[in-house]
Every structure is written in structure tokens, then in C-alpha cells.
Amino acid sequence: MKKKARQKSPAPAKPKKVGLGNAHLLVVDDEADFARMIQKTLVQAGYRVDVAVSATQAIALQRKHSYDLALVDMRMPEMTGLELLQYLKVRDKKIFVILMTAYGSLAVGIEALRKGAIHYLAKPFKLTELKRDVADALKRRAQYLEEQRIFPQRAAMDEW
Fold this sequence. Notes:
The chain has 160 residues and is an alpha/beta fold. The protein has helices at residues 32-44, 55-64, 81-91, 106-114, 127-150, 152-159, and strands spanning 24-28, 48-52, 69-73, 96-101, 119-122. α4 (106-114) links the parallel β4 and β5.
């Protein structure tokens, strides 16, 4: 009489974090410690995160990788966050960008949104606020990509 092989029960699945997905983020801030703090926070939230401490480094990283979302400091030595935002969007229309600024004002926020940012954060901000805004931006990006898939003619109309 043959004994049945005892089957192992599958390991319990780890709960999936909201907004985790496979999101790849780019953090650009000339203050290296601040950029690493954001990176650590977002990695703990389940995202893949690269850091650039200059606009040049960010551009080089974008040439190598495709990013879902970039968090960009407004004031940097080489170029402004608005200039980098425009460069990133020209190279990849699907990237979403959140601008971060210690010099926040309503005018800065409006200008950021006009140039294509999805949101802007005034420094200092709470890390819970950062995680919430990143998750919201990624949800909006997913909706945008789904709309582009369903209605491809809209993409051509947007470029017109």
C-alpha cells in the first residue's frame, strides 16, 4: 500500500500594501540626507526608489530607467525643479511629477501644475502626507494609463 505524499500547505500570503504595485520612483533633491530620508520612507512603503542629488544625475538615471513618478525639489543649483519637470515630461509623457519646495506659495503651486506637475508639497511635510500623496499620484497615473489604453485617440488629441 502506497502512502500519500503529504502536501505542504502554502505559506500565508503577505498582505499587499495599498499602492505598492511595481512602482519605480525617482527622488531628486540636492540635499542628500533629505533625499535618502524620503527614499527610506518610500522603500519601507514598498516602492522601488532611486535617488539623484542633482538634475544632471536625474537626467542620467531617466535615460537608464523608466519611472512612474518623480519627486523633484524646486530649487537646485543646476536647474530649477520646473525646468527638470519639463525635461522629464518631454522624455516620458507617462511620468508623473510631484514638486517639493521649501518656498511654497499659491503662485508656485499654480505654476507647477501649469507646467505638468501632478501635485506639489511644501517643505517641511509629514512623511504620512508624503506617502499618501505618492499613493494618490500613482492611482491617478494608473487611471490615466487605463484611459490611454481604452481611448488611444485621446492621446493624439492631447498632443494636438
